[in-house]
Amino acid sequence: MEFFYSVFAGLLQSLRKLGAMILFFVEILRRCPAALLRPRLVSRQVSDSGVSSLVIIMTSGFFVGMVLGLQGYDSLSRLRQENILGAGVALTLLKELGPVVTALLFAGRAGTALASEIGLMRATDQLSAMEVMAVDPIQRIVVPRFLGGLISLPLLTTIFNAVGILGAWFIGVSIKGVNNGEFWSQMQQYVEPGDIWEGVWKSVAFGVAASLIAVYEGYHAPPTAEGVGLATTRTVVTTSITVLILDYLITAFLL
Amino acid sequence: MESTRTRELGTGLFILLGFAALLFLATQTTSLDQYVDQQGYRVTARFSDVSGLKVRSPVTLAGVNIGRVERIEFDNDRLDAIVTLRIRSEFNRIPDDSDAGIVTAGLLGSRYIGIGPGGAETYLEENSEIQITQSAIVLEDIIGRFLFSPTASSGGK
């Protein structure tokens, strides 16, 4: 009985948090048009979340692409189908791995930075000070960060995909000796523009989720040192789970 | 001021890089030209079986890609399939008595249309119909015919 009660309480708690997050999202959306009138604030956040994640995204993308090249070559050569390596790698990256891995890396690199920054502003009463000065902290602090993340993630995903395909090409063609023409022509035969769009839509959805969770956790962090730490941890955990669940749902809808 | 400028330059470069990557994906990983290309002329052909053929399957002549399948329709009166091919305009000297067949790339590969050139002096043009066609070969039928053919059993006698 005790056990069921705690499970029920946990479910209720998550449901309450989901509701609070959606209400916060509505608050953000309402202030988006006004925030777009000050594009410099947003572009600064694109720089903070996007440009700073570029190195980790490109490095990871290249290595993920290379390992896909190695593993794909190994599996396909058992079927004597090495020439479709390009198609396999491109479809894997574009439709699935690119958006998901980029979103997870983004949560670790940029999401935590956002959450701890906003959380620290809360803990040091900077947000309250803004309210005293009649500056809306959601408008001034939260919305530009949300939009910055939302713009950055699809761009980062596209870069991840392109670098990953180049990594697989490097391994497949230069090291394993797959024919260069076969690599690209098989890819072009099997990949359709819809596959690229599927990845882009996914990354937009992940961009909304990852940015929203980061700013929500930061904004609602308990104003203590421990609270800020907790907010960054929660950001990574919640974003990872949300991204993986969303990924399944979007894939099930789109296929 | 200097750091602001560097930051803005970095942001601009980042966005440029993102779109360059998208351009790379759009042009290198998928053959966008077959979707953009609306030039060329349309030719129809009737097949009694088009199984495995899809819209956008390639059309080849002598192994060279000269166009794609634009539409596959079903004719309710004659109970066969009308396939509309779009052939690029630079291939405008295909004799109009050429034949079209549905060919498989490899044993189990994807289906495409292979054109075999005829010998006529007049050429295929917009809306002309290819008269001689060879339908898709269904592998199961051939295996079935081979397994259960009367010649196979009479050969044993």
Counted by DSSP, the helix tally of chain B is: 4
Topology order of chain A in helix (H) and strand (E) letters: HHHHHHHH
Q: Please report the total strand number of chain A as a whole number.
A: 0
Number of E-state strands of chain B:
8
Beta-strand content estimate of chain A:
under 5%
Helix/strand structural class of chain B = alpha/beta
Summarize the main sheet of chain B.
Answer: 8 strands, mixed
Chain pair forming the biggest interface: A-B, 28 and 21 residues
Q: How many separate structural domains of chain A?
A: 1
Strand order across the biggest sheet of chain B? 7-1-4-3-2-6-5-8
Unreliable sequence segments of chain B: none
Roughly what is the average pLDDT of chain A, rounded to an integer? 92
Total tally of structural domains of chain B: 2
TL;DR of this structure?
Chain A has 255 residues and is mostly helical. Chain A has helices at 2-36, 39-78, 85-123, 126-132, 137-175, 180-190, 193-219, 225-254.
Structure description:
The complex is a heterodimer of chains A (255) and B (157). Helix content of chain A is 89%, strand content 0%. Chain A has one domain (19-29, 43-254). In chain A, α2 packs antiparallel against α3 (85-123). Chain A is an all-alpha fold and 255 residues long. By secondary structure, chain B is an alpha/beta fold. An eight-stranded mixed β-sheet of chain B has the order 7-1-4-3-2-6-5-8, with no helix packed on it. The relative contact order of chain B is 0.16. The model of chain B has no long low-confidence stretch (mean pLDDT 82).
